[in-house]
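step 3/5: co-fold with S-adenosylmethionine
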Amino acid sequence: MFCRNTRPTTEAKQKEPLFANALLRFRMNLRVKIINSQPFMKGKKSKTKRKFKAVDFFCSGGGMTSGFRKAGVNVVGGIDIDLECKETYTTNNPDSKFIHADIQDLAFSRIEKELKVKRNDKKMIFIGCSPCQYWSKIQTDKTKAHETKNLLKDFQRFVDYFKPGYIVVENVPGILNRLDESPLKSFLDFLEKENYHYKYKVINASHYGVPQTRRRFLLIASRVTDKISLPLPDTKTKLPTVRNFIGNKKVFKPITAGQKDKTEFLHSSAGLSDNNLKRLLLTPHDGGTRTSWKDTDLQIPAYVGKDNSFQDIYGRMFWDKPGPTITTKVL
Ligand SMILES: C[S@@+](CC[C@H](N)C(=O)[O-])C[C@H]1O[C@@H](n2cnc3c(N)ncnc32)[C@H](O)[C@@H]1O
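step 4/5: write C-alpha cells
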C-alpha cells in the first residue's frame, strides 16, 4: 500500500533478499490518485547502485513497482492501458517511466527504446500482475472482465522475446483453482519449455505485514537459478490489525458522511442516506453484520433470506483483526 501512514509495521525476516521486501510490502490494490507529495524513495538507494532491474507490466498506480524499488530494484518502467494511473505511478516512483499502452498492441521495440531493456538480461525481472476480475470470486458482471482474462498470454509474449532472468506473477487464487480454463496452465508449460524454474503458492497478505485478509496467487520463476524460495509468512509476529493502521488515534480524524478531502491525503467518506446511517448505527462494533437489523424496516429486499452471503457489505471491521479484502470499488 502506498500511504505512508498505513505502511506495514512488521517485517518478516526473509531468505530471499531480492523479492522479500517487495512482497512484504504487498500491494493492496487501492486506486489512489496522489498519496504523498514526498515520494518514498527520495534520498534512498540511488538507481546506479541497484543490481537488479525490472519492468512492471500492468503497473496500475505502481504498488508492485513501489515494493520492488524499496527492495532495491531499479524498476525502469511500468506499462498500463489506463492513463489515470500515470500521475500516481510517477509521483510515487519518480525514477520509473510510465508507458501508456495496451499490452496487446505494444511493440517489443518500444520497450527496447524507451526502457532500454535488452534481451537475455539475467538481472532483469519481469513483473506481470494481469487483471484478475474474471478469476475473482467476487460476483460482479464478468462481461467486461472477459476481455482481460487472458492477458497473461500477452505478458508471456514479452517473456518469450526478452527472456528475462526472473519473473514474478501475482493474481487471485481463481487463476490457479480454475486451471483448466485459465491462461496459467499454458504459461506454466511455457516456463518449463523455456527452462525456467518456478515455484508458486497462494499466500495471505496479512502474513506479510498488510492489515488485510487478502489471498493471492504468487509465482516466482527464474532461468538463472533453481534456488527459488517464496517469501516465508511471518507467523511469529501478531497479525497486523485495523487498529494498528487507522482510527482516531492515528492520523485519520473523525469525518462526517459525504465529507470530501481535497488534499493529497484523500480522507473522504461516501455520502450516506438517512436509512444507511441508521443501518450503520444499528450494526454492532467489531464484526457486527447487517443481520442485526434484518427484522426491521431497514432490511434490504435483495438480502431477504440471504443472511450468510456477503455479510461484510454492511458489516463493521474488527478493530483487532486484519480487515477484509478490499475491492477495487472501495473508494
Ligand atoms: C491487477 S491491476 C495491477 C495492479 C498493479 N500491479 C499494482 O501493483 O498495483 C491490473 C492492471 O492492468 C491494466 N490493464 C488492463 N488491461 C490492460 C491492457 N490491455 N494493457 C495494459 N494494461 C492493462 C489495468 O488498467 C490495471 O491497472
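step 5/5: annotate
The CA atoms of residues 286 and 318 lie 4 Å apart.
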